[in-house]
Amino acid sequence: VIKELSGKPVKEAVDDKTLPFCWKGRKPFRSIRDVSKYFKPLALRFSSGWRSKTQFEIPIEGYLLISSKGNVCLGVLNGTEVGLQDFNIIGDISMQDKMVIYDNEKQTIGWTPANCDRLPSSDTMSI
């Protein structure tokens, strides 16, 4: 994220302690739409064996939030800072519009885009 912000008119907001990483613009941000020209969707890649990799794409509204100071903050936390060793924590906003899928036979977990009004079809699942 920091590399992607290089050369853009966004600076680290060290005085904002809402989350570990926050940035400020030329003027306070009022919505995620205000920051959409500076940030891209975040892609996380998970290995599920030596053959396949699954990608979890998080739209900007799923990993960023606007602080009360008008800054934009990263909603992904370093797990080592809270005693989780090398695990990271993504916030509940990252899972909006996703249904978690459990495959007990393969002992895997995955997700699929979801419409809470109906169940997804099995061919759209990413496990």
Could you characterize what this model shows?
The protein is mainly beta and 127 residues long. It has two helices and ten strands; from the N terminus they run αββαββββββββ. It has a four-stranded antiparallel β-sheet, with no helix packed on it. The model has no long low-confidence stretch (mean pLDDT 82).
Mean pLDDT metric? 82
Largest sheet: 4 strands, antiparallel
Strand order of the largest sheet: 1-2-6-5
Q: Estimate the global geometry from the Cα principal axes.
A: globular
Helix content: under 10%
State the helix count.
2
Distance between the termini: 26 Å
Low-confidence stretches: none
Question: Which structural category fits the helices and strands?
Answer: mainly beta
- The gyration radius over C-alpha positions equals 17 Å
Query: What is the number of strand segments?
Result: 10
How much of the sequence lies in strands comes to 25-35%
Order of helices and strands: HEEHEEEEEEEE
Secondary structure elements and pairings:
Blueprint: H1 2-5, E1 11-12, E2 22-24, H2 32-35, E3 42-47, E4 53-58, E5 64-66, E6 72-74, E7 76-78, E8 88-90, E9 98-103, E10 108-113
Antiparallel strand pairs: 1-2, 2-6, 3-4, 5-6, 7-8, 9-10
Key traits:
mainly beta, 4-stranded antiparallel β-sheet, two-stranded antiparallel ribbon, globular
Give a brief description.
Belongs to the peptidase A1 family. This protein has two helices and ten strands, in the order αββαββββββββ.
